[in-house]
Amino acid sequence: MIRLGKLATRLALGLGLLVTIVHTLELLDPRTSPEDRQEAIPNLIGVGVPLTGLGGWQLWRERRRAEQQAQDCLRATFFQILQSTQGQITPLQFAMATGLDGKTAKAYLDARACEFDAQYHVTPEGTVSYYFELALEAAPCPPAEPTVDSP
Hints:
Layout: H1 2-28, H2 34-84, E1 88-89, H3 91-98, H4 102-116, E2 119-122, E3 128-131
Antiparallel strand pairs: 1-3, 2-3
Helix pairs in contact: 1-2, 2-3, 3-4
């Protein structure tokens, strides 16, 4: 089903671009008769532009969905490592688990360290270890205020 959607997206974009290019060139060609120009305008506006727009929009949505899935996967891997190491992680561990290069893994961990107020330690050799405090018990939620329904 996903492959069919991707095929439809590329088909719409390809056909839309083809129709748009052909009719734009037809409109720009000085040898084109006035009747052909009159036929090219509705085809360009009614077929080429909408198909190109639809295909481009779908392609953009696919790309956003893939980026979101990649971010979700990184986040899940990050939390799994933290749970298995009692909150300690190094860029090398994260890079090995995710397939990221070292600089990208370190940048990701730096961002999470800022987000979660992590501590870090740099060894004399230059190795960085991040320490995230894991909450063992969930904090109790404050009681909800009662609401009164008005008649």
